[in-house]
Each structure stands twice: as structure tokens, then as C-alpha cells.
Write a structure and sequence with these properties.
Elements: H1 4-13, E1 21-23, H2 25-32, E2 38-41, H3 45-50, E3 57-58, H4 66-71, E4 79-82, H5 87-98, E5 104-107, H6 110-116, H7 138-144, E6 150-156, H8 161-176, E7 181-187, H9 192-197, E8 205-210, E9 213-219, H10 224-237
Parallel strand pairs: 1-5, 2-3, 2-4, 4-5, 6-7
Antiparallel strand pairs: 6-8, 8-9
């Protein structure tokens, strides 16, 4: 049974289906063999367990947070999608295109074409972990610190009540200081190496960097006025 969220994805994605690159099973196999992107299975857990392409991640369309999971995928890597017939994966591919992803490839006739070409599947009861929202590797974190100017990092955890309380405020600050301060949210649970590199001992943990150097830290809940004073004071010194 389709969830309401999946139905909405279908409705909003249909207008950009023509922009998605569709590949035959043979061309899809050649593309994923380059190992330059992320392979996504858009079927159910049961279908995945009965047979999936090796190395694929399962995107659970029944998950109420599926849109968040999809939008947490990196935009700089090719995304290869498939399902049984190509219909579900096309809907998800179109949704991604509509949200700014440009390297999106769909297997046109899905696993029907894959099996007809005699290509292999693997079985297993457990799908690989889905990418978590706001995850950042230590390499990407170090790259972030090479950026010139101001970068403000909000280390949070999905279970943290003060973190959730601050999220609307962070979105407001992001809009108010656009072009002046880059504001980045990092899920500490999904980014343990980056959190360790930053010296995070609890959440929320806030850091303002200038040219890669930490000039302000806050361990715990912060108020908007407090952060605006810090931002404005440092912007005046620029």
C-alpha cells in the first residue's frame, strides 16, 4: 500500500520525468561498474531481501522521513536508481531532479530487464543502512574549514530536545545571514569522526569559524539574540 508521502512524491515528480536519464539494464550495469556514485534500490524490505543488486542501498518508501533521507544524499555524486519495473525509481529520480540533483540515472525497465539480461542479484535479509540527514565525513569537515570567511556549525543529534528547539531558529539565522555567514547543520550521531575532530563532547555544540579558525564555541542551548550579537560583532571586525 502506498503511503500518502509516496503518493505526493509521485504527483510532484511527474513534471520532470523527461529530464531523468533512463538507461537500459546493460548500460546501467556499465555505469554502476564505474563505482563513482550511489546505487539505490527503491523497493520494499521484502523485495530487497529476495534479491537486489550488490552494493545497493534500500530507500524505504514507507518511511515517513523518506524525503529527508533522499535530500541528504550528496549532490556531487551520480545517483543510480532501480526498482522492479522502473516506475517507482523513476518517480524518486524525478523528485531528486526537482530538488536540485543533476546526476540522476534510472534503470528504465528495472529488474525485469536486469534479469532478462542474465545479470546477477544477491539475497539477504538486511538492507545496508540508509544515509542519514546532515551526515558529514571528517574529510568533508576538513574541507569545510578551508573555506574563507565565516562558517557557523551546529552539531546536533536527532534525539536531542534542545537541538530540536533550536532548529527553527537556525533556519531563520541561515536566511538572515545568507551571503555573510555560512550556517551548516551536522548530525553528530551520523558524523562521529567529524564531531571528534571538532572536539564535540555534547549536543548541541556550536562553533563559529573564521577562515578555518574557531573564534566562538557554545556548549548547550543558545538563544537567537545571543548568536546574533556574536555574528554581528565578528562581522564588524571583518
Amino acid at each position: 500500500m502506498r503511503t500518502l508521502l509516496f503518493s505526493l512524491l509521485l504527483a510532484t515528480a511527474s513534471i520532470v520525468q523527461a529530464q531523468v536519464t533512463s538507461l537500459s539494464a546493460a548500460d546501467f550495469k556499465k555505469a554502476i561498474d564505474r563505482n563513482d556514485g550511489i546505487l539505490l534500490d527503491t523497493r520494499s524490505q521484502g523485495e530487497y531481501a529476495r534479491g537486489h543488486i550488490a552494493g545497493s542501498r534500500m530507500i524505504d518508501l514507507q518511511d515517513p522521513n523518506v524525503s529527508k533521507t533522499l535530500l541528504a544524499l550528496p549532490k556531487d555524486k551520480p545517483l543510480y536508481l532501480y526498482c522492479y519495473s522502473g516506475a517507482r525509481s523513476m518517480s524518486i529520480a524525478s523528485f531528486l531532479m526537482q530538488n536540485g540533483y543533476t546526476k540522476v540515472y534510472n534503470m528504465q525497465r528495472g529488474l525485469i530487464d536486469w534479469s532478462n539480461n542474465g545479470l546477477p542479484l544477491v539475497t539477504g535479509n538486511t538492507a545496508p543502512s540508509q544515509p542519514q540527514p546532515d551526515a558529514m565525513s571528517v574529510t568533508d569537515f576538513q574541507k569545510l574549514l578551508t573555506e574563507k570567511g565565516f562558517v557557523f556549525v551546529d552539531f546536533y543529534a536527532p534525539w536531542c530536545a534542545p537541538c530540536k528547539q533550536m532548529m527553527p531558529m537556525m533556519e531563520e539565522l541561515k536566511n538572515e545571514y545568507k551571503g555573510k555567514i555560512k550556517i551548516v547543520k551536522i548530525n553528530s550521531d551520523a558524523s562521529k569522526d567529524a564531531a571528534q575532530k571538532a572536539g564535540v563532547t555534547g549536543v548541541p555544540y556550536l562553533i563559529l569559524f573564521k577562515n578555518g579558525k574557531a573564534i566562538y564555541t557554545k556548549d548547550g542551548l543558545a538563544q537567537k539574540d545571543e548568536l546574533k550579537k556574536v555574528f554581528d560583532s565578528n562581522l564588524r571586525k571583518k
